[in-house]
Specification:
By secondary structure, the chain is mainly alpha-helical. It is 90% helix and 0% strand. The protein is built from two helices and no strands. The N and C termini lie far apart (84 Å).
């Protein structure tokens, strides 16, 4: 079956479902539209909340990674300074 036929069948099914839904709706169109709008707003708020939570989590992880990288850098610098001092002491001990 070609992709075009599948897409056409899907669109036809959606159209028929929408028409039947409107014809057999238990409430007036204005009430149904209001419910749809409220539900859409609820979904938008939920999506916004999840996005904010996700952004906060990413921000916290990036901050934590930055602190970890700084700590490793500081430890590495301290180790390097210690090695330099040891090398200087060893050099001066043997008059190098």
């Amino acid at each position: 079956m070609s992709t075009g036929k599948v897409a056409l069948g899907t669109l036809a099914g959606l159209a028929i479902g929408g028409i039947l839904g409107i014809l057999y709706a238990p409430e007036k169109g204005s009430v149904t539209r209001q419910k749809i709008m409220e539900k859409g707003n609820d979904y938008a708020e939920e999506l916004k909340s999840k996005y904010n939570d996700f952004a906060d989590t990413i921000s916290e992880k990036l901050h934590s990674a930055k602190e970890f990288a700084q700590e490793i850098s500081e430890n590495g610098k301290a180790e390097l300074d210690e090695l330099k001092n040891d090398a200087n002491r060893a050099g001066s001990k043997y008059n190098l």
